[in-house]
Amino acid sequence: MKLGDLPTPALCADRAALEANLRSMAEGLPGRRMRPHVKAHKCTALARRQADLGHVAFTCATIREMEGLAAAGLGEDLLLANEVLDAHRLGALDARVTVAVDSEETIAAAARGGVREVLIDVNVGLPRCGCPPAAAGGLADRARAAGLEVRGVMGYEGHAMPIEDVARRAEVTEQAMALLTAAHAEVGGDVVSAGGTCTWAVNTWATEIQAGSYALMDHSYAYADLPFRPSLFVLGRVISVSDAFAVADAGLKALAMDHGSSDVEGGSVWFYSDEHVTFAPAAPLRPGDLIRVLPKHVDPTVAKHPRLHLLEGDEVVDVWEIDLRDW
Amino acid sequence: MKLGDLPTPALCADRAALEANLRSMAEGLPGRRMRPHVKAHKCTALARRQADLGHVAFTCATIREMEGLAAAGLGEDLLLANEVLDAHRLGALDARVTVAVDSEETIAAAARGGVREVLIDVNVGLPRCGCPPAAAGGLADRARAAGLEVRGVMGYEGHAMPIEDVARRAEVTEQAMALLTAAHAEVGGDVVSAGGTCTWAVNTWATEIQAGSYALMDHSYAYADLPFRPSLFVLGRVISVSDAFAVADAGLKALAMDHGSSDVEGGSVWFYSDEHVTFAPAAPLRPGDLIRVLPKHVDPTVAKHPRLHLLEGDEVVDVWEIDLRDW
User: Fold this and answer.
1) Mutation site, B126, B129, B139, interface A, largest A CB count within 10 A
2) For a tag on chain A, would you pick the N or C end, based on fewer CB atoms within 10 A?
3) Cα separation of A32 and A75, whole Å?
4) Backbone conformation region of residue B23, classed left if phi is above 0, alpha if psi is from -120 to 50, else beta
5) Which class for A56: exposed (0-12), middle (13-18), buried (19 or more C-beta within 10 A)?
6) Is the pLDDT of residue A225 over 90?
7) What would the mean pLDDT of A17-32 be, rounded to a whole number?
8) In angstroms, rounded to a whole number, what is the distance separating the alpha carbons of residues A185 and A188?
């Protein structure tokens, strides 16, 4: 099938660019040094490709992602890098399941739900989940007292990701990992899980890196000097043309805008509506012409689509279900 | 089932508020005077409720929405208020199908796809789809020459919706409808389709109003002095707490942010991540506590969810599939 045969809007990835990204990471952080985060693509077929390249342990953000990977036979070592208050669906999985805990309540929930292994989630500077570093040891004791195996710690230096200066980004990462390493000394276990696409190369303290975006690659990470290039776009079709602008059928329901407005290749965007983009084209367009829209933030863009179309040039060579959507 | 038994994040609507909105509109614009836009809820069960109240003709933004309503037996009079270049899926529907056209190409596509009826889409001031008003008559002739039945015109005064001053909003609506009425005189037919939730009461020129948001009702329309109140919220659960902030499991993948950041009831939002909201709670919270997040823009928020939970107080009294998602 050709690109032009697809109903639009359609989520597409350039297979060569995606494959190059996957291989770069597999060379840089082989095997267990990398625990791919599936929240970035929510796609079992893409996860299977990551496993083929040696990354057999995965990171998830939702219970649904854990369930889907387990059902697909990719459950060798699944980490839910997030807190949950009802862990019964996790406890029921036919997979090795580890869940992040950062409070008495989440420890109790893990034990009650039948989960056997946990990481102590430590706040290393991003105001989100994680206990204070000084509380990590005490929580590990409580977890063990509740019958849980404590595999180690995790802590996400998300506040380092947007830092443009590479040296400064490395410095902030080092400070965050000093907190995590200190917590680890109190907690024990052999896992120190951290990192993301923008710190994968500078975070040398973590035993495993939780990067996800590198595969499809955010346009908003253009500043970050990384060996990955954007492979994702949303295909739209021009449906209306006037003297001053053109309108295509790729709008807010097909593109996430939280990291900034998506760019249209060969056009200057005026605004987005639910199902439309109005833009000034660089060269005249006619109804039926195809356009490519470049999402700034891949994770929530992918989550809006049912399928990912893999391309070689203009040929659709494969179609992967975004089967880990929803919750 | 109780609210607290739902996995989170969960899309919820207060049934009494939703029902009051639906009844207000059915009284204000009974029967065919109102052609509900299903893009706002993408939910066949909600559309059925609108049909029960007398609105048996529907407006859609996507082919998928048209297919879903037709399959559900709600195809008495379906309008795709949008241009398409491949109309074969529309032509195959077991329903009365009308599609908007605004160019030679979209007329040819309708005829080729087996669609029999069209509206001439006229640009009445919003830079999006629609032909120039002066071109409407010529396009109607072309459509008839192509064997299509021209039912009339449509034109969306979307540029009037954000105007806070009611008198000014009415004035801009009048100017837009003057263009549409003039085009209608050239086109013929008995349909003048226009309007939206913020102009439903002041647009007295349209024979039918295409409002959608009124049912679940946008918080971003709070300025508009309308007899509808927000009935939609996203239920989240507190998963982590620190001294200064709390974190709940309702993030960017569960909430559309294009009309501004969603508010948390009883809290002040710091920021959203893919699956999290970090906020300062007005009163102390514990992990497991429930929160309500109020989306500014319902349409793309609903499109992120698989199901809508109907509530009476804290009781989940019904669950409706968001079955018209995707394309």
Assistant:
1) B129
2) N
3) 14
4) alpha
5) middle
6) no
7) 98
8) 6
Q: Do A102 and B240 touch (CB under 8 A)?
A: yes
Element (H, E) at A137: helix A136-145
User: What is chain A's mean pLDDT, rounded?
Assistant: 97
> Which pLDDT value is given to residue A218?
87
Q: Are B256 and B122 in a shared domain?
A: no
Residue B174, CA distances (Å) to B124, B167, B204 in order: 10, 11, 9
Question: How high is the pLDDT of residue B220?
Answer: 82
Give dist(CA B207, CA A55) in Å, integer.
60
Interface check for A260 against chain B (CB to CB < 8 A): the answer is no
- Name residue B90's beta-bridge partners: none
User: SS3 for A41?
Assistant: coil
Residues A201 and A55 in one domain: yes
The CATH number assigned to the domain holding A281 equals 2.40.37.20
Total CB pairs under 8 A between chain A and B: 138
Closest Cα to residue B168, out of B204, B139, B198?
Answer: B198
Amino acid letter, A5: D
Distance CA B28, CA B12 (A): 26
Preferred mutation among B12, B240, B242, B247 to probe A, highest tally of A CBs within 10 A: B240
Strands A117-121 and A149-155: parallel
Q: And the tokens for A54?
A: 């040696």
**Positions in chain B short of pLDDT 50:** none
Q: In B, which residues are within 8 Å of A287 by CB distance?
A: 83, 85, 103, 105-106
User: Based on the domain organization, do A172 and A288 belong to the same domain?
Assistant: no
> Which chain B residue is nearest to residue A87, measuring alpha carbons?
B7
Domain boundary at B157, B182, B213, which?
B213
- Say yes or no: B197 contacts chain A, CB-CB below 8 A: no
Contact A74, A44 (CB under 8 A): yes
How would you classify the pairing of strands A277-281 and B149-155?
unpaired
Indicate the pTM of the whole model: 0.96
The domain in which residue B273 lies consists of 3-12+229-321
pLDDT tens digits, one per residue of B94-121: 999 999 999 999 999 999 999 999 999 9
Question: Whole-angstrom Cα distance, residue B307 to residue B8?
Answer: 12
Same domain, A167 and A240: no
> For residue A219, what pLDDT is reported?
84
